[in-house]
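Forum > Structural Biology > Help requests

Title: Can anyone predict the 3D structure of Thiamin pyrophosphokinase thiamin-binding domain-containing protein?

Hi all, first post here. I have the sequence for Thiamin pyrophosphokinase thiamin-binding domain-containing protein but no way to get a structure on my laptop. I'd be grateful if someone could post the structure tokens.
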Amino acid sequence: MFLAMFYLKNWFNSEKPLFDHYPLSILKENDMYFPSFYGIIILNHSKSSINKWLTEPVWSRARICACADGGSNELREFTLEREEERLGRFTPDFISGDFDSISSDTKQFYEQEFNVPLVVAGDQDASDFTKCLQELQKRTNHESLKHVYVFCTFGGRFDQAMSIVNTLYLYPDLHIFLISDRDITFLLKPGLNRIHQIRSPMCGKYCSLIPFNGPLKVVTSGLQWNLNEQMELNFSTLISTSNAYSETEDDFVTISTHQSLIWSMTLSKED
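Reply #1:
Sure, ran it for you. Structure tokens for Thiamin pyrophosphokinase thiamin-binding domain-containing protein below:
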């Protein structure tokens, strides 16, 4: 721990930007760090995620909620499973995509019963997730929307999982949190990042630092296996998966990086 802190102090000076992340706040009612202005996106194949983590307070407090194409099928099924308590309370502000995944029943359900706009976005160079984010920003004024919580999955097709991660890099100025049934994943920014709430009962045992953007140097503190400036994260040599938190009493870990970096942390219901 002392060695990691020494590297942090010497490798990064006070002029580097500091980013504090509270990834679990969205899942905790009355949390003091609950964001005041955020959006929600439901992606395809997200049923297990919304079953575990989507609640009415999370949905109703959002400034804007949307489904990306087939995500609307997941939300409709989620709603109708407990129709008496959910019908009319989980209605998206819009659905966007190229509509190759949404079912005809889902279209009818949202268009005719709830007048939900269907925004056709046919750009084949962008994923439904990316197109949904673009529409989300248009409807909220780009500068106002800073936090977006995305209910998704990383199971199933590998290419779709990689497409979801790619979208994080396309929107580095947004704080996008990918919520699956098992973990929360987001992009760390160049600078000094502090991830809080690691002692929360909702936080799982494991965490990962993944260098999707190429080789980079990272200095950490608060992890069971810390990284220092003599080590390089690189897909051809070393990546830090299945890491864990140290036994200190600190409620955060610190990660210093010169480049964007993927952070993923498990949730307690998985462990």
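The mean pLDDT is 89. The chain has two domains: 1-17+189-271, 37-182.
Shout if anything looks off.
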